[in-house]
Write a structure and sequence with these properties.
The chain has about 500 residues and is mostly helical. The chain is built from 14 helices and no strands. The chain is rod-shaped and about 150 Å long.
Length: about 500
């Protein structure tokens, strides 16, 4: 798999420095069970989280400043700042949309990996079944219905010459069957049949959790952005404040996801930089590691790996020798035993020999390295060419959307501060004759006014009297209360008289 080392983004991510918690450099070889290597990935994943915590602290301080800041008396326009917020919201939504595509791309690559892994597991399962079948067939061949039945027949015959002539043939047949079983056991002991099944189950569970969490994260970010857009459009201070509060949680989740995908991408790049080394390390002993190496590096035109090829060839040879020895036994036994007496065990042994030969041949085809190497290649391509592209997109788009959301979070307190302000009262110039003034309420409609009798001495009434006299539309000296004046208070015995302006 040397071709995967030429992928540029794999090399870039693989060259990231790997540091443990003590900030000591560790090996960049993919070793998921190595504690130092795990710490290096966790450290990369924690970097974006630390960054966003600092940003959230600064944004909280900015929000507090805006909350305690004195409100302006005159409402200001928020068009420009809302347009700026809208632009960054659009950028954020675009980043989230690309994140959805990247998540599906990772899922697609994972599906290719699982399908290849299932095919490899199926091939290994067929090999395991064939080996177990061969074990059973060989045992039945030497069992009571096979070789042992012929030995019992010879012992019952009681012919010394027949025993001396035919027993060596039966012993040879039994010996060939035992050697065939030994060759089969040798293949079985070197075959890592259960490793991929366990790894496949764990990978499926992890991928399901990853896909679900990513979808929830992206949908929650999209909900926050839409809520912010609605609040800015409606100029609703309540929606804007809700967006600010949700935005804090959204930013924390987005950057936590960015950290997780940063650690995942670095780990995947380490795996894709040299996948053969990791796959070879799955072997439990040196023999299994050699077998995995043969299948991972299978060349064009290569067939059964050397460690299996000799066992298969020896097994075929032993089965052929057992069959030819059975022919010799049959030719010699006719001189001493009737054909009817030994036809049943001979036929049983013939069927088992043919069955054994067919299964050994099928085993050789299943052990051909080209079949498993094809599945291995597809699995690596699914991880390193399809899934890693999706992870790279998520790694780029989540921080991009996060930066846009940070800018939005910094602008929203200002939008909230300038949105929905009530117009305050401005000082009025009393000397302006065109400015509207309230009617003379000073003592108007009260009982105290008649008692005091000082309404005419009020400066407000004098000013109003001069103003009315100078108006062209003045037709009467009697002052009629204005429509917006309060009704006159009730006075026992009648209503108070109206003020006259003279």
């Amino acid at each position: 798999m040397n071709s995967y080392r030429d992928i540029w983004y794999v090399k870039i991510l693989h060259e990231f420095p790997h540091l443990d918690f003590s900030f000591q450099e560790t090996n960049s070889t993919f070793e998921p069970e190595n504690r130092s290597y795990q710490e290096s990935l966790i450290l990369w994943g924690a970097a974006p989280v630390a960054f966003i915590l600092v940003i959230l602290f600064l944004a909280s301080c900015c929000l507090c400043v805006q909350c305690v800041k004195k409100k302006p008396q005159k409402a200001q326009r928020t068009t420009c700042i809302r347009i700026l917020v809208a632009i960054f919201i659009i950028f954020s939504i675009g980043g989230v949309a690309v994140g959805f595509f990247g998540n599906e791309q990772v899922g697609k690559g994972a599906k290719e990996f699982f399908n290849s892994l299932d095919d490899a597991n199926q091939t290994l399962g067929e090999i395991s079944v064939t080996l177990d079948t061969l074990d059973d067939v060989v045992d039945e061949f030497n069992g009571p219905a096979g070789v042992q039945a012929l030995k019992e027949l010879l012992s019952k015959l009681g012919n010394q010459t027949a025993n001396q002539t035919l027993s060596p043939f039966l012993n040879q047949i039994e010996d060939h069957a035992k050697k065939t079983k030994n060759e089969i056991d040798s293949v079985k002991s070197n075959l890592p049949s259960l490793l991929l099944q366990k790894f496949s189950k764990q990978a499926v569970d992890v991928e399901f959790i990853r896909w679900t969490v990513t979808i929830v994260l992206l949908c929650f970010s999209l909900f926050i952005l839409l809520t912010t857009s609605l609040g800015c459009y409606k100029k609703s201070r309540c929606l804007i404040m809700t967006s600010v509060i949700l935005g804090f949680f959204g930013l924390l989740l987005v950057w936590a996801g960015s950290g997780a995908y940063l650690g995942i991408s670095v780990g995947m790049s380490d795996l894709c930089f040299d996948p053969d080394t990791f796959v070879e390390s799955l072997g439990e002993d040196e023999a299994q590691k050699d077998v995995i190496k043969e299948y991972s590096q299978c060349q064009v035109g290569k067939g059964i790996p050397p460690m299996f090829k000799k066992d298969i060839q020896d097994a075929v040879y032993e089965v052929s020798k057992a069959n030819s020895t059975l022919d010799k036994f049959l030719n010699e036994s006719i001189k001493f035993i009737r054909v009817e007496q030994m036809s049943k065990p001979i036929l049983y042994m013939r069927l088992h020999v043919d069955y054994t030969f067919g299964n050994v041949t099928s085993l050789g085809e299943l052990l051909d390295c080209r079949t498993l190497h094809k599945d291995y290649t597809k699995a690596v391509e699914g991880v390193c060419e399809t899934a890693l592209v999706g992870v790279a997109l998520l790694l780029l788009m989540l921080p991009f959307a996060g930066l846009c959301m940070i800018i939005v979070q910094c602008l929203l307190p200002r939008v909230w501060y300038l949105t929905g302000l009530k117009r305050g009262y401005r000082p009025v110039d009393d000397s302006d004759p065109f400015c509207h003034r309230p009617p003379p309420y000073n003592g108007y409609g009260t009982m105290e006014a008649e008692r005091r009798g000082g309404a005419r001495e009020s400066c407000t009434l004098e000013y109003y009297r001069d103003l009315r006299r100078s108006a062209d539309e003045l037709r009467s000296e009697e002052r009629v209360p204005m429509n917006d004046s309060p009704p006159p208070a009730y006075h026992p015995g009648g209503f108070p008289r109206r003020y006259e302006i003279e």
